[in-house]
Amino acid sequence: xxxxxxxxxxxxxxxxxxxxxxxxxxxxxxxxxxxxxxxxxxxxxxxxxxxxxxxxxxxxxxxxxxxxxxxxxxxxxxxxxxxxxxxxxxxxxxxxxxxxxxxxxxxxxxxxxxxxxxxxxxxxxxxxxxxxxxxxxxxxxxxxxxxxxxxxxxxxxxxxxxxxxxxxxxxxxxxxxxxxxxxxxxxxxxxxxxxxxxxxxxxxxxxxxxxxxxxxxxxxxxxxxxxxxxxxxxxxxxxxxxxxxxxxxxxxxxxxxxxxxxxxxxxxxxxxxxxxxxxxxxxxxxxxxxxxxxxxxxxxxxxxxxxxxxxxxxxxxxxxxxxxxxxxxxxxxxxxxxxxxxxxxxxxxxxxxxxxxxxxxxxx
Length: 364
Fold this sequence. Notes:
The chain has helices spanning 3-8, 29-44, 51-70, 83-91, 114-120, 138-145, 166-175, 195-198, 265-280, 282-300, 322-331, 354-363; strands at residues 17-18, 77-80, 101-105, 125-129, 150-154, 179-183, 202-206, 218-222, 314-317, 334-335, 337-338, 344-347. It is α/β, with parallel strands linked by helices. Helix 7 (166-175) links the parallel strand 5 and strand 6 (179-183). The two termini are 33 Å apart. The relative contact order is 0.17. The mean pLDDT is 97.
């Protein structure tokens, strides 16, 4: 399969120039069919395969698809609803003490802000590292993480499209004795990824953006050596080894972060989505995104706020009037979005075309 074949599988591409994958990706038709088929099996085949058996089998298949895609092993993957769900579960799985400190960057999505803001109400300190132009200032970061309990940072800025030096940031934090949680939702699906090479304690992501999967299929990687630090308060029968026993023994792997009966059909879609992208090849996906974003940036010139040299498919740029620009893009059937700062962001994936880039540039 090549990017043209991938595009042909995405019905949304027949309706608009979809340049908003950084918010939510358009599912290929086989992904939606996989979700529907899984839901039918879950509900209609209960006489031959019980609900719980079918769900457990599908979840294991999902772990088996996610883990190699991100450079992990299946036991290190917990299945959650979305990236923010994963970050929140981690925030509620640590034994916090007054005076503990969390460090985050000012590049974080609200999913990487609000859990720590809530903890601040209980006496936890939160330090925010300012990242001019989407760059992590390493000297200021190194100073900030001294004495911190946990660091939360994104692998890529949803605001700028910049890529952060995750492995270096993790090493600095670990040297200071801090755990590290990485929000990787803007990385999975547009770049090859190796969570073990990053060295982070936890990596949270979701399938509904660049992976082109359905909503409701998020996942969390937990490094085996970091499991003992996680004793979830958000807990249910799927969190423990013996739900009906007298004690409380968490699962000895990442599944301790899972809680209860949830929708499993979205994971059938995620399995299919990963298979489709891998059939194209992640190196091919990344190379095409680079070519298309180079074309967009060249056309934008000084209006482009993202790095001139390729880092990701996220391209932020200025327009004279955000509201009127969005009205024009809607009329032209081009999907982009505005950011809280008032600038426009286009998200370029491998299924996009040079013609779509040019159509956007004509409106700028």
